[in-house]
Amino acid sequence: MNKTKLKGGFFNRVSDTNLLMTITIVIFLMMYIGAIVFQGSGFKKPQMFFNILNANAALIITAVGMSIVMITGGIDISVGGVVALVSMCCAVYLDKANGNIFVSILIAIGIGLAFGIVQGFLVAYVDIQPFIVSLAGMFFARGMTTIVNTAPFNVQNKSFVKLKSTRITVPKMGSYNKKGLYIPAYVEIGVLVALAIVVILFLVLRYTKLGRAFYAVGGNKQSALMLGVNVKRTKFLSHVICGLMAGIGGYVYFLHVGSGAASHASGMEMNAIASSIIGGTMLSGGVGNIAGTLFGVLSLSTIQNIVSSAGLDQAWWTGITIAAMLCIFLLIQSIVIRQRKRALKR
Amino acid sequence: MNMSLLKKITRNQMFIPVMALLLLAVVNLVVDPGFFKVTLGTNNAGNPVLSGYLITILDYGSELAILALGMTLVTAASGGQDISVGATIAIAGSAMLRILCGSNSHPDALQAPIIVAFLVACLVGMLCGAFNGALVSVFKIQPMIATLILFTAGRSIAAWINNNELPIVPDPKFAYFGSFIPGIPIPTTVFIVLICVIIMALVLKFTNLGLYTQAVGINEKSSRLNGINPTFIKFLAFVILGLCVAVAALIKVSRLSTINYSVIAKDIEMDAILAVALGGNSLSGGKFNIWASVLGAYVIQFLTTTLYKFNVQSDALAAYKAVVVILLVFFSAPKVRESLSGLGKKIAVMKARKGESK
After folding, report:
1. Which residues 317-346 on chain A approach chain B with CB closer than 8 angstroms?
2. What phi and psi values does residue B81 have, to the nearest 5 degrees?
């Protein structure tokens, strides 16, 4: 392609991935600033932002894994089920068997990896459509969760409760309550894990051979093969990473809610997919960014918070606003990509 | 000669669903010889009804079979799936109840004829389909993602239509669609499926819809060069699915005479997609066999009924289903089939060699 033709405004110079991510970040900032200006009180406190992080750490982790699978051109709809299964298994282990925390973390990672490996094998080496494989994975995980334990229950294990209630204070971000008492701002452990994972995977995608291979396979399988990329192994590894993230995300979710229930994380897979899309990942593969996904999750939950604090707390408004937002993002993506294609043709 | 006939049979698209049905039937026969017994009894209202596992399968598999019709077309044309059918069933059903019951959620009499309500539901279903279709065909958004919008919003919209109340239809006639018409011992749903299948068969026979759909699914660009409008064909597939959704909603709502927004037709989209896959259709579009999908739908219902018979909890059902699905898909994957047939050939060659050496 002739590079001189591409010179021009910012619009034409950045890659699809970065353009879509930039749009997301701009819209997120506009939304948040709008919320601070128009809704005031709640959003002014930094703790509001940290609460969003606390509640969505697990979603961030699973969505990041989902983005990687989507970048390679696949999909994994089993993550919600895996999160439920992980929290139920860990809950049963910690509560009924009075186990220790370290082993429970291993259980979580083990379950996630097992799902990732089996699904990855079926998708990459047996050539079954990822949608069907992970659909079966979702059914299996949800079914197993009820087989492990039917009734929802809270975990009483002392060391776990201690870990769950550990709060990391963020310096200088606290606020004063009505009585003038200083309340420090805090985040939960899960948030740190989530941010660490975002940073690590961001670097992996950007600077390692494997990371570039994900984009290559998602962009065009044939040419990736010609370039000497091991397409099957790359696909396999993308699913393994996604499974691992679902496992870790499951534990973080468990750490946040502190209970096991079959209905946990229902619909989480769709939220993860939605956040990835809002963050600029395309299901057709080859386009996407982990940092974008982070902002996707933040946008999704910010709008939820805006809706609920605006007093529209009838249950249906949340669903409708999220869908409307998704719709707007998709249309923007579609139009932007089309415009660029036209610009490139000229 | 004999070998090629066998090959022809195993290569046929109907092979997998038919084999799955046979397998399930044999398992059930071995465990319980009376599985296929159909008895004529009377229901609470004193009307003659047929009962038995077979009737249950035919009855409860009908929504899925109807959805499979539309889903196959959507899959073939767009190379993607509609995951919003469960939510749109809720919308169409809610609209139907709104027309039937009016603003009062517990009326003493119907506020409108059933046919009007059904037509409105059809319109609503087609509108939802048109929305999805427009996003997919005009804006070129991947189907699964485009339909994610209605998937998230659908149940909320359904609740909003009826102001989050749960209307109850007073007329017992409305319940006929999901159960039995007095005097006819066969479930009404079976007739509804038959009507849908016949209409679909006629459409496929006398129009070019099937051919065009395949052409668009296989190669959009070359179909455009051949004078087909891919945008319109994709759009049409989604609208047809919307119509199927309205019919399924009629059955679903009629079974209860009311609606539960968060539960009605939950996860049915997954089963419908599964039906298409079990029918041996490629989920990435192109060639399709609509009857194999319908058969696939009944295989799923057969499996569900069988599992219930073995006293599997309804929540745990999914785990068993997953195992069966994976096995089915694994053995129908072209790669596995090839290596299996390669194994068969090797054995045959080895046998032949042994014969020579003797």
Report:
1. 317-320, 322-324, 326-327, 330-331, 333-335, 338
2. -120, 155
Does residue B84 contact residue B154 with C-beta atoms inside 8 Å? yes
Tell if the CB–CB gap between A273 and B145 is shorter than 8 Å.
yes
Q: How far is the C-alpha of A230 from the C-alpha of A224, rounded, in Å?
A: 8
A182 near B CB under 8 A: no
Task: Encode burial over A235-268: b for 16+ CB neighbours within 10 A, e otherwise.
Answer: bbbbbbbbbbbbbbbbbbbbbbbbebbbebbeeb
Q: Do B39 and B92 belong together in one domain? A: yes
Judge contact between B76 and B217, C-beta under 8 A: yes
- Rounded CA-CA distance B187/B65 in Å is 15
ipTM of this complex: 0.76
For A131, name the nearest residue in chain B, comparing CA atoms only.
Answer: B283
Q: Is residue A142 part of a domain?
A: yes
Task: List the single best residue of A66, A82, A128 to mutate versus B (max B Cβ within 10 A).
Answer: A128
Give the contacts of A345 (CB within 8 A, at least 6 positions apart): none
The answer to whether B197 and B41 have CB atoms below 8 angstroms apart is: no
Q: Give the chain B residue whose CA is nearest to the CA of A315.
A: B156
Write out chain B residues lying below 8 Å of A320, CB-based. Answer: 153, 156-157, 160
pTM for this predicted structure = 0.83
- Cα A50-A51-A54 angle, rounded to 5 deg: 90
- Hey, is the C-beta of A273 within 8 angstroms of any chain B C-beta? yes
Q: Of B277, B284, B316, which is closest to A143 when you measure between CB atoms?
A: B316
A160 in a domain, yes or no?
yes
Q: Which of B142, B274, B318 sits opposite A143 (nearest CB)?
A: B318
The answer on B333 and B298 residing in a single domain is no
Which residues are paired to A176 by β-bridges?
A182
pLDDT band for position A5 (cuts 50, 70, 90): very low
DSSP B101-112: HTTSSS-SS-SS
The C-alpha atoms of residue B159 and residue B204 are separated, in whole angstroms, by 36
Residue A318 lies in a domain: no
**Widest distance between CA atoms in chain B:** 88
Rounded distance between C-alpha atoms, residue B214 and residue B232, angstroms: 14
The backbone torsions φ and ψ at residue A193, rounded to the nearest 5 degrees and listed phi first, read: -60, -45
Do the Cβ atoms of B157 and A320 come within 8 Å? yes
**Residue A68 within a domain:** yes
**CATH number, residue B120:** 1.10.3470
Query: Are residues B350 and B229 part of one domain?
Result: no
B264: domain range? 2-311
Number of folded domains that form chain A: 1
Q: What would the two tokens of residue B96 be? A: 């139907």
Q: Tens digit of pLDDT per residue, chain B (358 long)?
A: 555 777 777 677 788 788 888 888 888 888 888 777 888 877 776 777 888 888 889 999 999 999 999 999 999 999 888 989 999 999 999 999 999 888 777 777 888 888 999 999 999 999 999 999 999 999 888 888 889 889 888 988 998 888 888 888 888 888 888 888 887 888 899 999 999 999 999 999 999 999 999 999 998 889 999 989 999 999 999 999 999 999 999 999 998 888 888 888 888 888 898 899 888 888 778 889 999 999 999 999 998 888 888 888 777 888 888 887 788 778 777 777 778 778 877 888 887 777 666 5
Rounded Cα–Cα distance for residues B142 and B145 (Å): 5
A6 part of contact set with chain B, CB < 8 Å: no
Contacts of A334 (CB under 8 A, 6+ apart): B139, B140, B141
Q: Total structural domains in chain B? A: 2
